Amino acid sequence: MVDVSDWSLPGRPVIGILHPGAMGAALGSALKARAGAVIWADAGRSQATSKRAELADLVAVPDVGELARRAHVVISICPPGAALDVAGQVAEAVAGQDRIPLYVDANAVSPATVAAIGALFPDDAVVDGAVIGPPAWEAGTTVLWLAGRHAATVEALFAGTPFTARTLGPEPGTASALKACFALQSKALPAIWLALDEAARILGVDGPLREELARTGVDYPAELGAVAARAKEKGWRWVAEMEEAADALAAAGVPDGFSRAAAEMYRRA
Question: Membrane-spanning residues where (predicted)?
Fold first, then answer.
């Protein structure tokens, strides 16, 4: 097993982004000034992904294996359900090499999934990350929380960028735990409007419910419209995030039904 206990980055490291969706493109763009190159793997990616990467001025390489072998740091920012598979592709590509990239899993996954990803790489090579906020193109909107032995190294990469990077400590999984708890209010709680709407319509009390909510000062159409619009755009991605959050709650001995119900509502959306 490769020893990364004294692992460090060159002055201008090569950074790989898997994959440049809206958030990945913003992360890659933010790091251009600090990196020798910011690369992405274009094999099998959509035209929309290619366009985002082009606009962010990222350098395409043929595939994940090439990216993993060239990069000093790999940042995974993908749908939560794909996080373990993407990590496996990178680990397979660099197996047996003298140099292993620092692997930053910035996905909305449970601490258990972070541990599974960590088991794919040499000791300490994985940094647990959690992005809270929108894709950051200007400072002050978004925080990248980091945890792991080399979290401070990744934090330093983001100094002066639109992403405010903060280190929680040396224990991988804590950043993802924070994200899971945050997701209870940002995604699980709003999903109750979807459940409320569906139940009221099926039970035939939609009209009276709207009247009662209006009477008590609740703008039901606005609340429902906001979450329905977000669910239509991103619900496919939030299903896995809510399931990962539920796993985190269950592991802590906390009832996990909130997140599992939210996952089902986003699945229906």
Answer: none
Average pLDDT, the chain: 94
pLDDT of res. 122: 87
Among candidate residues 170, 201, 227, the one where a domain is terminated: 170
Task: Check whether residue 49 and residue 130 sit in a common domain.
Answer: yes
Which domain range does residue 143 map to?
Answer: 14-170
Q: Is 2 a member of any domain?
A: no
Burial class (CB within 10 angstroms; exposed 0-12, middle 13-18, buried 19+) of 235 = buried
- The answer as to whether 8 is a domain residue is no
Is residue 131 situated within a structural domain?
A: yes
Checking if the pLDDT of 4 tops 60, the result is: no
> 207 lies in a domain?
yes
Q: What is the mean pLDDT of residues 235-252?
A: 97
Q: Which whole number is the average pLDDT over 34-46?
A: 92
